[in-house]
Amino acid sequence: MMSVASAVPTNHAGLPANKNISLTYKMISKTYKSPGEKVREPGRWSLQGKTALVTGGTRGIGRSVVEELVALGATVYTCSWEEEELGQCLKEREARGVPVTGSICDISVQDQRERLIRDVTSRFGGKLDILVNNAGIAIRKSAMEHSTEEYSVLMATNLESAYHLCLLAHPLLKASGSGSIVFISSIAGVVALFSGPIYGMTKASLNQLAKNLACEWAKDNIRINSVAPGYISTSLTEQMFSNKELKDNIVRRTPVGRVGEPEDISSMVAFLCMPGSAYITGQTIMVDGGMTINGFYPK
């Protein structure tokens, strides 16, 4: 006759099966974090202790990106080809105790890009968490109006510089253990606009570059994304927006009913640099008030 004790199922360790289940649950519960616990993890929505290089950080979107990253705890290095503007900007930030340094750099010139990365390497001790390729120019002309020189300048400034800086910064980003690159692209790289075909080509190329590098450098724990702004109120669009009829037409085609501000872009850039966006890479994110998805939806 079988005793009650011998009828209790046991596991390979000789423990009652229900005891084993209890132990397993306790082990899992120690490592598993609920969604609520993950959201509350320290640093998930912060850039405290992070280092960043933001090109063209003295005006417009670039300036806003610098301010946003600093506000979230990052230490930022920036550059500009305009010496007086850079000096004034750094002076203002120093007076406010903002952790921003920088140097003169024409990013369209190879040896100046190399010098920039040497400066960043020295400043941040051989590591870099964030690279924001923001600096760029726009020449709004039709295909037949562009000169060969303008083509070369646009390509060198908007595309070649970003690609080269990624290559130069790769060892620093890899050394950080969790690097993030953000390209400031444009909706002109997604849909046809009157900003000109060459400008659009450079921005579309950035979007594709983000996809390729995201796959190639994932093994190095480096994420790469593009942010594609719509029409944003900056010095680049000041002359265009002076045409009231044109600006009104842009606003009518934008579902949210306004043009964008630099802060609309910098908030997305900051998000893509945070640990909270760790599963996002290779994406082109339109920040345009809905313009690119608005086929025909009259107000």
TrEMBL record:
UniProt xrefs under SUPFAM superfamilies: NAD(P)-binding Rossmann-fold domains
Protein's UniProt keywords contain Oxidoreductase: yes
Gene3D superfamilies tied to this protein: NAD(P)-binding Rossmann-like Domain
Listed GO MF terms: oxidoreductase activity
Pfam families assigned: adh_short_C2 (PF13561)
Domain of life, source organism: Eukaryota
Signal peptide, first to last residue: none
UniProt keyword terms in alphabetical order: NADP, Oxidoreductase
Alphabetized PANTHER family for the sequence: NADP-DEPENDENT MANNITOL DEHYDROGENASE (PTHR42898:SF6), TROPINONE REDUCTASE (PTHR42898)
Name of the featured protein: Uncharacterized protein
